[in-house]
Amino acid sequence: MSQNKKQTGYVYSNQLMRYRFSNEHPFNQMRLKLTTELLIDAGLLSSSQIITPRIATDEELTLIHSYDYVNAIKHASRGILSEVESKKYGFANEDTSQFKHMHQHSARIVGGALKLADMIVQGEVKNGCHLGGGLHHALPGRANGFCIYNDIAITAKYLSERYNMKVMIIDTDAHHGDGVQWSFYTQNEILNYSIHETGKFLFPGSGHYTERGKEQGFSYSVNVPLEPYTEDDSYIDCFKRTVTPVVKSFKPDIILSVHGVDIHYLDPLTHMNCTLDSLYAIPYYIKALADEYTDGKVMMFGGGGYNIWRVVPRAWSHVFLSLMDVPIQHGDLPKEWVEKWRTYAPTDLPTTWEDKRLDYMEIPRTAEITAKNLKHANQVASWF
Fold first, then answer.
1. How distant, in Å, are the alpha carbons of 141, 168, 259, 299, 312 from that of 319?
2. For strand 127-130 and strand 50-51, is the pairing parallel, antiparallel, or unpaired?
3. Which residues form the Histone deacetylase domain (predicted)?
4. CB atoms within 10 A of CB 140
5. pLDDT in tens, 78-112
C-alpha cells in the first residue's frame, strides 16, 4: 500500500466487524461499515488511504493490561474460562460477554491503532482515524463497558515509551473514560481530559471534576461532567472553555481523541440533548488545536454511539473529514448509500447531511442546566 505523506490514514478492515458480542448487543460494528461506505459512496475516502490493522502482540497489550488478564481473554476465546474467572475478569453480565476468538478480534483493534501511531510518527501519513477503536472502559485487569482491550490507553503508553512523546487524550464520549483514567491516575507522562455526562445517572458513575489524579498524577486527569439533557450551546461552550487551556498548559506532542457520538439526543443509552451540530464541530476544533500545538499530529478514535443508522455514519464521517480540512457537508447523502441500506434499516434512513431534528424536544430547564455546567467548567478552567 502506497501512502502519501500528506494523506490522512483511515484504519479499516472487514475483520473489525468480528468484534461482536451478539446480534442483539448495542455495540454493533456495523456502524463502522455504514460510515466507511458512506464516505466511499460520497467520493470522500480513497482506497490508498485505508490502513489494514494488524494484531497487537502480547508485549504491546501488557503495556496496560496484566499478563493474567490477557491469558484469561485467550481462554475465553476458546470457551475454557471458568465461571469463577469469568466473574473475576468482568464477564459476569451481558454488557461485556465472551465470544469466539475474542482475543484475536480485540487485539486487532489495538493493532490498528498502533500501526496508525507508527505511521504518523514516522511521517508516512500526516494524521488519521481509527473509528473501530475507542474502547476506553477496559481496565488493566478487567473487561468493562463493552470493552476488552483498551486501545486508547495502550496507544498512549506506546507513544510515550517508544517515542518519548507527551500524549494528551481528549475524550468527548458521553460516558466517562474510566479505563483510561485509572490506567494513568498516578502517572504524569500522559494527560487524560474527558468531557461527559455526569456519572450521577450514567455508567460508569465516575468522572467527577474533583477526580484529578493522585501522587505524581495529580492534575493529569481532567474531568468536565455535564448535566443530563445538555444542549449544543452549553456543550460546545464548556468544551472550548476547558480543553483549550489544558492543551495550552500541557503542550502535548500528539493528541489522541475519542469521538463517541452518544451525546446525540437520539442515542438510546444516554441522556444528552445535543445534535449533529456539536458532533460536526468537535473534531474540527480538536484538529485546529493539533495544528496549533502538536504540528498537526492527531489520532481520532471512534468510541460510543448506539444509533447506528441515523447518527453514527454522518457524525463519524466528519471525524475523518476534519482531519483533511474538508468542510462540513451539506445537502443530500449519496443516493446509492441510501438505497443500499434502506431495506436493512429498522428505521427511516436520513437522506441529507443536515440534522432535521423532527423529533427534537426542547428542554424546559435549559438555563438551569447551562448554569450548572458553566460553574463546573469555570472551576476546571481555573486550574490551568
1. 31, 18, 8, 10, 11
2. unpaired
3. 25-321
4. 15
5. 888 888 888 888 887 778 888 888 999 999 999 99
Residue bearing the bigger pLDDT, 350 or 98: 350
* C-beta separation of 4 from 82 below 8 A: no
Amino acid at 210: T
Contact 183, 153 (CB under 8 A): yes
DSSP state of 373: H
DSSP one-letter code for 147: B
Torsions phi, psi for 155 (to 5 deg): -65, -40
What residues have CB less than 8 Å from 343, skipping those under 6 apart?
none
Cα separation values, 367 from 65, 233, 273, 357, 371, Å: 43, 11, 14, 21, 6
CA-CA-CA-CA torsion for 199, 263, 321, 244, nearest 10 degrees? -50
Q: Can you tell me the mean pLDDT for 288-314?
A: 97
Asked whether the whole model's pTM tops 0.85, one would answer yes
Cα angle 258, 193, 267 (rounded to 5 degrees) comes to: 45
- Cα–Cα dist 1/191, whole Å: 33
Spell out a b/e string for 181-199, using b for 16 or more CB atoms within 10 Å of the CB, else e. Answer: bbbbbebebbbbbbbbbbb
Is residue 80 within 8 Å of 122, Cβ to Cβ?
no
How far apart CA 239 and CA 285 sit, in angstroms, is 10
Q: Which amino acid is at 338?
A: V
Q: What angle do CA 17, 89, 11 make, to 5 degrees?
A: 25
Tens digit of each residue's pLDDT (9 = 90 or more) over 256-296? 999 999 999 999 999 999 999 999 999 999 999 999 999 99
The H or E element that residue 257 is part of is strand 254-258
Q: How many CB atoms lie within 10 A of CB 112?
A: 30
- Grid-cell match 427534537, residue found: 360
